[in-house]
Amino acid sequence: MILPYYMSISFPYYAKIKDKYCILYAGYCREYVSQLKLLRPILEDTFPGVSIYLSCRDDFMYLLDGEPKTLSRSKLKRQKHSFGYIRELQTKTKGPHPVHELFLESDLPVPIISDHANNSNRLCCIFSHGTLPTKSITEKQIESYRNMAQFDGYHVWVNPDVVAVEQAGWVIGVEGIPLFEAATKGVKTSLIATGIGAKFYQAMFPKLKVLKMFSNG
């Protein structure tokens, strides 16, 4: 974790930066960056007067395009003395989910992002690929979810381009950007819980369902 570096700065300078808070995630789970982008304004509203900046890997900065108060990890290393505190989120193999942990440690409720599900379209998209700690599902498991959706009258696409999310009436998937973006848009979503974020997702999206895991047999 990158901590404040108090010893080499004067109190007047610290007084200028004490309300600048930076959240850094330098891991490989892209959806964490998207979640921070969505939730940052809510955190700022909760703590008036505090400016919250976001930082991530240099190659993930495209996820923050158009977002104010952002900087790459390499730039943060050069400017760490510009912040009163830097909170680094770590990728973990066990819960709680790192972004969820921000709310837990501040004793804040996770905000509801969407509590409706539009399922008028009969296209179902299945997203099977996860980034550790989220595990991908197997071809056999994909086939089981495909059969389930087809039985309910859906036409199924597996791992289509993310653009298809907006066309879908139902998105099934492991934790990742496609499932997260579908849920934020009010698309009916079902989570295959192979990661550590099921409670976090259900708090943000009360209509989201967690599906039973099919076996490989």
Structure description:
The protein is an alpha/beta fold and 217 residues long. The chain has helices spanning 11-17, 30-46, 73-78, 98-105, 139-151, 177-184, 198-204, and strands spanning 20-25, 51-56, 70-72, 85-89, 123-127, 155-158, 170-173, 188-192, 209-211. It has two domains: 11-105; 123-211, Rossmann fold, CATH 3.40.50. 30% of the residues lie in helices and 19% in strands. α2 links the parallel β1 (20-25) and β2. It is elongated. The termini are far apart. The model is unreliable at 1-7 (pLDDT under 50).
Class inferred from helices and paired strands: alpha/beta
**How would you state the average pLDDT, rounded?**
89
Q: Please indicate the count of domains.
A: 2
Q: What distance separates the N and C termini?
A: 42 Å
Separate helix tally: 7
Percent helix: 25-40%
Low-confidence stretches: 1-7
- The string of secondary-structure elements, in order, is HEHEEHEHEHEEHEHE
Provide the spatial order of strands within the biggest beta sheet.
6-5-7-8-9
What is the alpha-carbon Rg in Å?
A: 19 Å
Q: What overall geometry do the principal axes of the alpha carbons give?
A: elongated
The beta-strand count equals 9
Can you summarize the main beta sheet? 5 strands, parallel
Kindly estimate the percentage of residues that lie in beta strands according to DSSP: 15-25%
Q: What attributes does this structure have?
A:
9 strands, alpha/beta, five-stranded parallel sheet, 30% helix, 217 residues, disordered N terminus, 2 domains, elongated, Rossmann fold, four-stranded parallel sheet
